[in-house]
Write a structure and sequence with these properties.
The complex is a heterodimer of chains A (258) and B (274). Chain A is of the alpha/beta class. Chain A contains seven helices and nine strands, in the order βββαββαααβαβαββα. Chain A is globular and about 50 Å long. Classes of the chains: A alpha/beta (258), B mainly alpha (274).
Chain lengths: 258, 274
């Protein structure tokens, strides 16, 4: 990657407050094109908030976020968002294919909009890419956790994103779906920048290129190889780290409170 | 048959039948939206705010239904802004609106000179006493809701399913939210003359609840819900005419009775299959 390329994403002194509660404090970092960033940190550490701030869903108290050196503009750069699956209404009466097609809706409101046959083909291709094409006519209430998660990824891909943001994509997912999702993300990373949030160290550190550790503040940002002092700072307690490439395990050696 | 035919000659019966059609189209569409978006309580709050409008109508010597129309539109937008701008628990807010709306209605009526007006038809509905102008208003509201929802249906589907995602796609969800609150306010007013303020939630929820057992898709549920609502309204109308009991209450009781029956039959069928 030539060094004078504009960063895909740049955050400068970003702070977010919920009322008086500070959710994110003075976050600054930038991300190169085609990076694959894993954001880890404890629950309530602001990971989802950070994604939502990048997506423009939350007002910043201060600071700025630039995407390909521009202010966020939904019409210009597509951001693919895969929300935490527990936040999405699973009982809603839509079919799998309908959900993917939602990603293909034109952004300007068109009356009597109908999906073209090309939309249908593209939608089915995305379902097959996420290996759930056989479920296309199922209602989403009938899907397993893993299948639903893949559907959310397919919907995000339908927006043809340059940056893909995923919030806990492996949280409610069985082991084989988890592997499929990571394989898919690796493939996608060839053509897009990926930001993946998880509270589960072991799930992601073996897959991502770079890591950010978030606990209200950005504790660490750099290579995906973690060292003891960083993790200790992040979780506030000693945790055992195994070699990079092998799933890390956080052992319970806590003493007292965090 | 002859008796039925001669009944249909009466204008108030014709109006009642038409009102039932409009009411069920409105409640079919808006009911499914409100239930899926989990805004039932908000809708109830808005219905009771409409009572303040009825009172205002009496006070200003306007048709009360137009007073209700104005105030529920206004308050639906105020509610929207409050829910967006503050972190007040929605439940709590609705409790405040719900009771304050009624209180404000009573206040306006107390200020109105002369004998206190008959409020029963606004509170509990009277489909047999629908006027031409009520019917016109209901028709306009039904056509408006039908047009707005049908013409942008894929957008509504995406919006109701996942508002954040729809917004990130660059779709003007602010506008859709505004429309959503407007449609609910209109629906509530249109149902006042049929089931009344206090009973309007019934038409918005019960046909929807029954339809959920009939159709898996969003649009299908709306059509089913409208159809079921129509049958329930006509049925309730017939029973209320036969037994000479208030139509609003009859429609509501018939609806909840049918719901209980459908639920029980479904439950029974499920346990037999096991």
């Amino acid at each position: 990657m030539p060094p004078n390329n504009p960063p895909a994403l740049e955050l400068k002194n970003v702070s977010v407050y919920y009322g008086k509660h500070c959710a994110l404090e003075d976050i600054s970092f930038s991300l190169q094109d085609n990076d694959y960033l894993g954001i880890i940190g404890p629950n309530g550490g602001g990971k989802t908030t950070l994604l939502k701030a990048i997506l423009g869903l939350i007002k910043l108290e201060q600071g700025q976020i630039r995407i390909y050196s521009e202010e966020l503009n939904y019409q210009k750069v597509s951001l693919g968002y895969v929300p935490q699956s527990t936040f999405v209404e699973r009982s809603f009466p839509v079919s799998v294919l309908e959900v993917v097609l939602m990603g293909l809706l034109p952004s300007s409101l068109k009356m009597f909009q109908r999906y073209s046959s090309q939309d249908m083909i593209l939608g089915r291709r995305l379902l097959s890419q996420t290996s759930i094409l056989h479920l296309q006519n199922r209602m989403i209430s009938e899907l397993s956790g893993g299948e639903f998660q893949k559907l959310l990824i397919a919907r995000a891909l339908a927006t043809n994103p340059r940056i893909l943001l995923l919030d806990e994509p492996t949280a409610n997912v069985d082991a084989s779906s988890r592997d499929q999702i990571f394989t898919l993300l690796k493939e996608l990373n060839r053509s897009m920048t990926i930001i993946l949030v998880s509270h589960d160290l072991s799930a992601i550190s073996a897959h991502v290129r770079s890591l950010a550790c978030l606990d209200r503040k950005l504790v660490y940002h750099g290579s995906s190889e973690l060292t003891d002092p960083i993790v200790q700072q992040l979780y506030g307690c000693p945790v055992d780290l195994l070699a990079h490439g092998v799933p890390h395990r956080v052992l319970k050696t806590h003493e007292g409170h965090h | 048959m002859n008796a039925l035919y001669s009944l249909l000659q009466y204008q108030f019966i014709q109006y009642a039948i038409l009102a039932a059609i409009f009411a069920s189209i409105i409640s079919g569409i808006v009911g499914v939206i409100v239930v899926e978006k989990k805004m039932v309580m908000m809708t109830g709050g808005l219905a009771h705010v409409a009572f303040a409008g009825v009172g205002l109508g009496f006070f200003l010597n306007l048709p009360p239904i137009y007073g209700a129309f104005l105030l529920s539109l206004l308050f639906s937008w105020i509610m929207m802004m409050i829910t967006k701008a503050s972190s007040i628990q929605l439940d709590l807010l609705m409790g405040i609106f719900w009771s304050s709306g009624m209180a404000l209605g009573v206040f306006f009526i107390a200020l109105t000179p002369g004998y206190p007006p008959h409020l029963a038809s606004y509170l509990f509905g009277n489909i047999l006493a629908i006027s031409r102008s009520d019917l016109n208003l209901m028709m306009v509201i039904a056509l408006f809701i039908l047009f707005i929802v049908v013409s942008c249906f894929p957008y509504w589907k995406a919006f109701l399913f996942d508002q954040e995602f729809t917004r990130i796609k660059g779709i003007k969800t602010v506008w859709m939210e505004f429309m959503l609150f407007t449609l609910i306010a209109m629906a509530v007013v249109a149902l006042i003359k049929v089931t009344g303020i206090i009973l309007s939630l019934a038409l918005l929820t019960i046909p929807t609840a029954i339809s959920a057992k009939g159709s898996p898709s969003l649009g299908g549920r709306m059509i089913w819900s409208a159809g079921i609502g129509m049958i329930l309204c006509w049925g309730g109308l017939a029973l209320s005419f036969l037994w000479n009991i208030p139509s609003g209450a009859t429609i509501v009781l018939l609806s909840s009775g049918v719901f209980a029956l459908v639920y029980a039959v479904k439950k029974g069928a499920n346990s037999c299959n096991r």
